[in-house]
Structures are given as C-alpha cells and as structure tokens.
Give the backbone structure.
Amino acid sequence: MNISDLLITMAQVSEVEQPTLFPFPFRIHLVFCIIAVVFFVFRFIKKKLPYQIIMAVAIPASLMIWISNSRSLFYGVGIAEAVLLLCAFVSTFIFKPTKTAENNVQEKNDEKEQTE
C-alpha cells in the first residue's frame, strides 16, 4: 500500500465522521432527562430528601449544552453541573435519615398495606 493512498483514505474517513459532544443525539438525551426528572421528583415526593430535587434540576441542566457551541457555555454548564453534583453528594450525608426515622416510615407503610 502506498503512503499517499493511506493519507487519502484517512482524510476521507475523517470527513465522514463528525464527532459531537455527546455520544447520542439530542432526542435520546431529551428522553433520558425527562425520565430522570420524573424519577427524581417521584422519589422526592416519597422520601423528601434534598439530593433528589437537586438531581432533578442538575440532569436537565445538561441540556443547555445544545443551545450553543460556545466554549464558555460549555465550561459554565460543566462548572454548574459539578457544583450541583457536589451539593447532591454532600446533602446525602447531611440529611441522612436516622434508623428510627426509617423504621417509623417502614412501620407506617406496613400499616397502610395491612389496612388495604
């Protein structure tokens, strides 16, 4: 194989591939965000833990990347995501339910199931 043929082949391959920021298209990202928000809001309604509502905000915030190709927007969203994830992580330890609270919730759920 000739080196010039190799270079031409590599140039053609690089023209075909147009890498994007995400490995999946916008619609799949949107569906993932909707499912995640519904899940975390539902869990927040049930458990009332702050990290759940923080995650319900953080996940769809990643959709802002699709607004523009600006590097400053990209870095701004990345910093905001990092802060929100850190807040969610810290709040899991700060607002950790005690064993007695978990037992009370479990007992209430058991009582509801028995009455139904």
Observations:
- The longest helix spans residues 71-94.
- Residues 43 and 68 are 32 Å apart (CA to CA).
- The two ends are 76 Å apart (CA to CA).
- Helices lie at 3-16, 26-47, 50-61, 71-94, 99-115.
